[in-house]
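Dear colleague,

Following up on Tuesday's group meeting, I ran the structure prediction for the two-component complex that the binding team flagged. I've pasted the input sequences exactly as they went in, so you can double-check that nothing got truncated or mislabelled along the way. The C-alpha cells for the whole assembly follow below. Feel free to forward this to whoever is handling the docking comparison.

Inputs:
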Amino acid sequence: MKILVALDTQKYSRKIVKDVARLAQNTLADIVFLGVQAETAEPAEELTLALTKYQQDVYSYFSSDELPYGDLSQAKWQKEDKGDWLISAKGIKEFSLRIRSGGVAKQVVQVARDTACDLIILGCDEEFGCEWDGEMNVPLRIAEDAPCSVLVIKKSLAVKQIVSILDQSVVSQDALEMVNQLVTLYDAGLKIVGVQEKGGGKKDQIEQRMVELLRYYNEREVSGWVTLIDSEQVKKYVTNSSKEAIVALWMGNKQSLIKRLFSQSMVDKLLSTSRSSVFILR
Amino acid sequence: MLKTLLYVNEDLASSIALRFTDYLNKFVKLSLYIIHVEEPDAKEQVGTGWVRRTWEDGVRSSGKRLVDRMLRTENIDCPLAGRPKIVVEESDFLGERKDREVVYELGNGMYKLFIKGYLDSADPEKFYELISSKLSTETSCPMLVVKNLSLSKKCALLCADSVDPKLLVEKSMDILGDSTFDLDLVFFKFKENEELRVLDPKEGGSYLRETEALLAERDKVVNNVTVLSGTPEQVGDYLKDYALVASTLPSRKSMRMYTLAHSLASVLLVG
C-alpha cells in the first residue's frame, strides 16, 4: 500500500501526523509526504523544515529495530523536474518527501496518479467548514478528483464508530482493508450501512455486498452492525452520523447510487458539517 | 435445552440470524429446528392432485437446497435437533400464508423460542410492521428478532413505565433464566435531550424496583441498573453493547417501540 499525505505548515497538518504514524505502523505502507508551494525556483525553507519535522515525528513512533523506512537525515533535496523536488530513502519500505509548485489540489491529484497511491490523507481547518490555507475548495477538489481513496481528517476526536456507507457497487480489497485499519486505529465500532433505491431495487445485490463485508470483517474479528436504508434517507442519515462518527462513503463507478446521490455539493456539505473525518473510498 | 425454531431464507438477515443463533447457543443451550417457507412465483403454480404434488415436491427440494446452502455457508457449530422443515406457500394466501405456517408450526411443535433475522433499518415503521404482524402477535412463544451479530457477553432487560415487571421477568427468565449472560437492567425515560443522560437509579421508580425484586426472588444477579433519559435513537444506540435486549411486546407505537426499533442489538420480545 502507498499513502500520500498532503501537508503544509498549518496546525491542521501538524495534528494529523500522529494518525498517519499509527496507520504507517499498522499497514507498513510506503509513504509520500507532499508539500505544495507557489511557483518559485527553489523549495521554500519553511515547507522543507515542516515536512522534515513531520517525517521525524512519524519515525519517532517506531522503535529503531522496527522502523521499516531508510535514514533520511543525510539526504539532499533533488530537483526531479521544473517545480518538483524530492528526497527519498528506502528500507523495507520507502519514505519520500516531495515538494511541488502549483495549485494544491491539482498537484496532490497529479502526484497520486503518477505514483499510483492507494490513499490520500490530508487535514483541514474546521473553523469555517473545511479549509486548506484559507481556501474552501481544496479538500473537496481532492476528494472529487482523486484516482484513489481520500481521508480528510478534521479533528482527532475520540471516534467511537466508523459508519461505512455502500451501495451495490463492487468494493475493492484495499478499501475494505483501509476501513479495517480505521477501526483498529480508533478502536471504534463498525457500522455497515447499505443504501437501496426507494422501492427496493437491487436489494439482493446490496445484501450480497453487505454479506461479503460482514464476512471479511468477522474473519478479522471485527464485529459490524448492519443497517439498510432507502436512498431518500441517505443524506439525513449521513449528516447525523457525521456528527459523532467517521463517515466512509464507498464511491463506485458511474452507475453507483451513492455517487449519484452525493453530488459535488453534497460532498462539500459533508466535509463542511462533519465534526470528525470523512473517508471517500474508491 | 430450549426448543427453538429458526426461520431461514437466503438473505443477509438469515445469514446473521444463523450466526447469532450459533453464538446464543454458547450461553443458552438450544435444541434447534429450522423452518423455511418457499415462495414460488404465482404463475408457476400448477394443477391439482398428483400434478400439484409432484410440482410441490420439486419446489420443496429447491427450498431444501437453499437451507443446505445457508447451513454450509454459515458453517455453524450448533447442531440441528431435526431435519429442516420446508413449507410451500400457496398463491391464494400470498404473504399471510408464510406467517400462518410458521405460527402453526410454533404452536404445534411446542417451541419455547422463535428466532427470525431482521435487517436493521433506519425506518422504525418496518420494525412496527414486523412486531404487529401475525408472526409476532399470534406466536405462542417469545420471538428473538436478530438484528446484528453482537458478540457481547451481556444482555439487558429493557424496562419502562409501560412494561409490566411481572410479565417481563417471568417470560424473559423462561429464556434467559439459565443462561450464562451477564444481566443488566436498563430503564428508559423519554426526553428530548441533546445527549443521552444517565440518571440516578431512584428515577426508575416503583416499576424498576419491582423488576429488581422479582429478579432477586429468582436469585438472578443484576450487574448494572441504568436509568437512561433520552430519545429512542440515543437509547437504541446505547443498547448496541448488548448481545440482546429483552422487553415485552409493544402493543402500539410508543417511545419504547421506537427504542426497540432503533436498537442495534437483537431484541427478545416476550409476553
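Residues 2-146 of chain B form a domain with the Rossmann fold fold (CATH 3.40.50.620).

Cheers,
M.
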